[in-house]
Amino acid sequence: MGFKKLFASVGIGAASVDTVLHEPNVVPGGVVQGEVRIEGGSVVQEIQGLSVGLQARVEVETNDGERKQNIEFGRQQLGGALTLQEGSQHTVPFQLAVPWETPITMFMGQPLPAMNIGVTTELAIARAVDSTDLDPVNVHPLPAQQAVLDAFGALGFRFKNADMEKGRIRGTRQQLPFYQEIEFFAPQQYRGLNQVEVSFVADGGEMDVVMEMDKKPGLFTGQSDSFRSFPVDLARFQETDWTGYINQWLTEVGGKRNWL
């Protein structure tokens, strides 16, 4: 999938850029491979720099409510100064690392709604910087993430929604300035729960699984949230029965109403 943009800020005869991804399907910790094709316009132009990066559209809490913001991460410089001759063509290959914390955009083989992550390209010409539109990538779960998600499915949880929020989850290994929440409706057997939100914060060896459990109000208590987190070894996750493990945790919180 590729796209092409004329860099209008440099005036008539501007260069154009076409960014092509060789494989849009990736996993956290993987690599996006592609190439940037630059085509000279009708005038000689001085290229000052070329870079690619990942971009996510996240929710930001403000005093006036929520708004959307584009946040770039993992930007990589591809080249320095270059004199772009009239009508000349240049192809610049790239391999862009996908950070381990990158939110997933695919669930059960289907795109998650409102998960906008992709590659952007910046070309700096004559003291102006232009960015291309987003070229989407499909971020699939790591095997350990899939195992946890499968456990929720086996327990009867139904997918509700997913979002990306600017901010930090305290007590985790988080490095990016935003995180993902995947929300599930709780099944009947967890009578004390409305829903559960799950976040993954991974690095190369482990990941933190954070669960925020929305508890139903009891006779003498209001509605409340409960947080639990646990680490998962990415190389040894198969040694754990995640359905049983998560069920035990959830039963402690949502197996019965919080009456006191």
Verbal overview:
With 260 residues, the protein is mostly beta strands. Helices cover 10% and strands 52% of the residues. The protein contains two helices and 19 strands. The strands form five sheets. Strands 5, 6, 7, 11, 12 and 13 form a six-stranded antiparallel beta sheet that branches. Strand 17 and strand 18 form a beta hairpin. The longest helix is centred in the last third of the chain and has 13 residues. The radius of gyration is 22 Å and the shape is elongated.
Question: What helical percentage do the residues reach?
Answer: under 10%
Number of strands: 19
Distance between the termini: 57 Å
Q: Helical region count?
A: 2
Name the helix and strand elements from N-terminus to C-terminus, one letter apiece: EEEEEEEEEEEEEEHEEEEEH
Mean pLDDT: 85
Low-confidence stretches: 1-12, 217-224
Overall structural class, as computed from helix and strand content, comes to: mainly beta
> How much strand?
over 45%
Major β-sheet annotation: 6 strands, antiparallel
What characteristic shape results from the CA principal axes?
A: elongated
